[in-house]
Amino acid sequence: MRNILTYILLATIIAIAGCKPEGKGVDDPKPAVYYWRTSLKLDSMERQFLSDNKVGKMYVRYFDIVIDKNGNLHPNATITFDDSIPAIIEVIPTIFIVNNCLEHGIDTIAPLLVKRVLQMNETHDIAGVKEMQIDCDWTATTQHAYFAFLEQMKQLLDEHGMKLSVTIRLHQLAMEAPPANYGVLMMYNTGELKDSKLRNPILDKRDVEPYMKYVADYKLTLCAAYPNFSWQLLYTGDKFRDILYSEDLSDSTLYRRVSDDKYLVVSSIDLPNYLSSNSSYTYLNAGDTVLVIKPEAASIVQVHDALSHKRPGINDQVIIYSLNNSSINNYTSSDYEKIYRP
Amino acid sequence: MKKFIALSILAIATLQALACGGWVRPNYYMFSVFNRNQMENTYQQEANKFWESYVGGEVDSYMVESLAYVEPKEFNKSDNKLITAARKKGDTEMLSYLKLLNKYLKNNGADVNGWDYPTKADIANRKASILQVKKQALAYKGSRLKNQYALLVMRCNMTILEHQANINYWNTKVSKLKDNTYKKWMKDIYAGALYNTGNKDKACEIYAELGDMASIKYCMRKKRNLAGIKQEYDKNPNSPTLTFLVQDFVNNTQETLDNNSDPEIMKYVEATGIYKNDINGFIDFSGKVLKEGKTKSPAMWEAARGFVNYMVGNQDDAIKQLTNAKSLEGTQRMKDNARACLMLASIKSAEPSDEFFNYMLSEYKWLDKKAGVSKDFTKVADPHYSDVYERVTFDNFVPLLLKWGKNNTATAVLGMADKKAYSSREYSEIIEHDSSNQFEEFYNYIHSNPGSEFEKYAISTLSIDDNKFNDLMGTKLLREGEFQAAINYLDKVPLNYIKDQSMSFYMARKDYNIEPWMTRQFIGCDSKIKYAELKSNAKLQYCRDMVALDKKIANATNEQRNQLLYKKAALLYQASYKGDCWYLTHYGSSIYDEQQKNEYDFINAASILLRDVEKNTASTDMALKCVFAQTFITGETSGYCINKEYDWENDKTFYKLITEGPHYHAMTRLVNYRNQHLKVDAPYYTKCGIVNRFIAMNK
């Protein structure tokens, strides 16, 4: 009986030890940014940001993987390299995979994907690439296919001496950790756009709270990504209609500022949707409102600190989403300092 | 046009019975001085006309672009339509051009979204190939294909981002070529080169001049307001961008004012005063532009302030300015635009005089011509003028005719619009839903010889043949409960005429003799409806049955009478819009249907009969059937007290009992009645799912 008890005690200790926070973050941590545009071109403000914040890593979206009408997976919206990245900065090619691709032969594309990324690096003289990242909003339904794909990717990258990282969305914390060298916990897009009048859909502590219990024991090395972007959300009455793309809300013939973050549309107009591939328009009607949403810096720092508390080391490396001159000024350099600190 | 506004004539009582309450009409923009149909493929489509005349057959853009898939070594054997045509003609000059075009298209752009990402060598080779194509194109000394070769040079420069080379080439060579599609195409590329080298203003002017809407909207994205208009005017009073900006301003003003359906929202917007200031500012500024005399397009400015004045209610100024605009200097489109806007504005202050109707007659004839309605009324050449036609007709002219009590003329105008390929559902709705008297009156009207030339013009497009007339009259009378009168018309309708109607599918499959509360006849909704082979016209038979039944009822007494009245109730319900046999009284069915003004209240009549029979019968069996039937009708008309709902949290469906409302009370009465008369053998009750669920949920 005593032997059995000892065995149980030992097993418990081992199990607890296995779940314990590792207390360390990613290897070779550096202040980092995501670059999520279709052409790589840095202006002076963006270069200054990189320099001021001693950014050492840039997670650059290379392309997306989408599914065409014939059910074939293929790259889309491939980035064009119109500029060079400061040599001091390590580039991590990042690939966004649309979730529905996971149900359509994802097992066949790993070699193509690795080959493509390597070729892009070579064609555009991007040297010193040691890692690749996969971004995907996988779910319980697609988990199996996704994990098998990651295993393949990991093996292929290993042959080239490269590591694999993945993004982790909050809801994915409740599931098994994917096979990768580390994960980036995305601390943005945590809420629902339709609820944006009640909670900040970009980052709201109340939306993060339910997932905090998974953070400490999550069985994958983690670092964290925080937002610096804002959204312009168009409402008709209380109904959310659309996101505007960098609209000039200071145009007083079209908008009237009614509070710090709220504008009233005073004259109807249609705005071309430059993000859409089918030349669609967003229609603004007189009487509509535009809410400018961004998380308070204090709120980001609060979540940052809560994460550090739950899982020491997670903020050893912080990634800001994203490097963009329209977002940089949403926060002060002091805010960025606080967010970047481990 | 952008969003939708509620159709104003829906609110007009005299045109009642438009069955589909969800029908809305877009708020088409009236002001159009800028060609809105310019799209990115316009040049290619226009260039295809050259190829069509060359090959002597239809050529689409894909056929030209697919040259890219022809391998150079296969070129001489290729079955590509363009190559084949040149080969057959022995046209070596054309074959050389096509070879070069093939080389350009093959190297035009690296497939940056293919799995095989181009290597440095691939990119260098492509660039070298493009440079070769350019060199060869520049070396062309002929004259027949000089436009095509020049375009090739510019496309090559664009591909390798040599924008300055394109600017130079345009200035030294292309600008001197004669105007044609290729030159317009090259000018667009030239504008792109200007834009990319920082000369954005000039680029925007060219986009505006060419009518490249997508590019101009992008270029002018920060200037789409009065301040932007003033800024552009100050730079150049004849800048082509003003054509776009003025039109955009007027259309946005229309949008703002059309959006006044929600008074709460508009109250808030008006409180800002901004858009009103801008509108007034625009009217003043247009006056200043006209006074200065620097513009070469006074027709546009005068029409713009005239139409804005019309929209804000300054009717006298509007009429004066729009009338004046027609004869001022400007493009033909600007003058036409003024005329179209004046037609609309004139309706607002019109009096029912011969002069006005003659004016409308001439303007409608002109509008038909501008819209380019095909002779068979199936196609419209310029959709802007069909939009004008719709806004003038449906939202303004028809309501005015109704206000003047000219209902038949209003319906004829709607019919005319319907016939001429404009989007109209109103006419068929009215023809279907008007009362038999109204319809007969309209039928007589269009077969009369009205004195007014306008009315003659309107009715000349309409025809209602005998079969349609008899079927509609018979159906309307049936719907009004006039069964004997309906027989006189339905008797003349050939079965083949009924067979071709979509409702015949249901007529052939649903039997009105089945009691609706005992057996539901669900046959689903088939999108690929095949019209049915009918053995008889059920409408005619139904009327005959009802007339015979009424005779029997008149002679029956006691329980036999109750049995017949019960049967009549079932037949009445079946013919209602809720009945399985709605096809007896309607030509279509929808869950949004409701009791119409010109429709006999079949449901209420059935309910009254059932209540009477329940009260008068000595048979508890019959009484229970009547209570059961009434409960069914209450559920169908007021909603059931048991709802199937979905539990999102637990991902399952469940039933919810609503203990308030008529059906709950009807069910309670039914269950209580049955409990008091347990001896009645009633499997329709004991096996009824809703009854059993209700009993279980009430325990």
Describe this structure in words.
The complex is a heterodimer of chains A (342) and B (699). The longest helix of chain A is centred in the N-terminal third of the chain and has 18 residues, at 2-19. Chain A is globular. Chain A has helices spanning 2-19, 44-52, 110-123, 143-159, 205-215, 297-310, 325-328, 333-340; strands at residues 32-35, 39-40, 57-67, 73-76, 80-81, 90-97, 131-136, 163-168, 182-186, 222-227, 231-236, 239-244, 255-259, 262-265, 269-272, 281-284, 289-293, 318-321. Chain A has two domains: 23-229 and 294-340, TIM Barrel (Alpha-Beta Barrel), CATH 3.20.20; 233-292, no CATH class. Residues 1-22 of chain A have low confidence and may be disordered. In chain A, the strands form four sheets. Chain A has an eight-stranded parallel beta barrel with strand order 1-3-6-7-8-9-10-18. Chain A has a five-stranded antiparallel β-sheet with strand order 12-11-17-14-13, with no helix packed on it. The N and C termini of chain A lie far apart (48 Å). By secondary structure, chain A is an alpha/beta fold. With 699 residues, chain B is mostly helical. Chain B folds into four domains: 4-23 and 331-464, no CATH class; 42-257; 494-618, no CATH class; 639-699, no CATH class. Helices cover 61% and strands 3% of the residues of chain B. Chain B has helices at 42-55, 61-65, 81-89, 92-107, 120-138, 146-159, 163-172, 181-196, 200-210, 213-219, 226-235, 241-258, 263-272, 274-292, 298-312, 315-325, 332-348, 354-371, 383-403, 407-419, 426-433, 436-446, 453-459, 466-479, 483-490, 495-499, 504-507, 538-555, 558-575, 602-616, 620-638, 662-676, 683-686, 689-697; strands at 4-6, 24-26, 642-647, 652-657. Chain B has a two-stranded antiparallel sheet with strand order 1-2. Chain B has a two-stranded antiparallel ribbon with strand order 3-4. In chain B, a hairpin with a 4-residue loop joins strand 3 and strand 4. The longest helix of chain B is centred in the middle third of the chain and has 21 residues, at 383-403. Chain B is elongated, with a radius of gyration of 35 Å. Classes of the chains: A alpha/beta (342), B mainly alpha (699).
